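Lab manual, section 2.4: Encoding a predicted structure.

Procedure: take the sequence of the chain (84 residues), apply the prediction step described in section 2.3, and record the output as structure tokens. A sample record is shown.
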Amino acid sequence: MATKTISLELDAYERLRRAKRTERESFSEVVRRAVFPDQAPGGVELLANLQRRGPVLDEAGLDELDAVHAKLSGPAEDPWEEPA
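Recorded output:
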């Protein structure tokens, strides 16, 4: 089988090394099982994941997000208005 030598930065090498399932697994095997999505998932894929995994946040988490959103998206202060 033909081979190709590549250079990796140390952090990439360590990440690849940690991905090995066993000491005997080759880097080629690790790369072959890696998944490199070509594009972001669409609505159909997101819905399928949600149905399979269930909600990511519980009701309390959603309430907290709503509160943060309301605080951040509230009326902007008018820089020309004098303070009360």
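Check your result against the sample. The first helix runs from residue 10 to 18.
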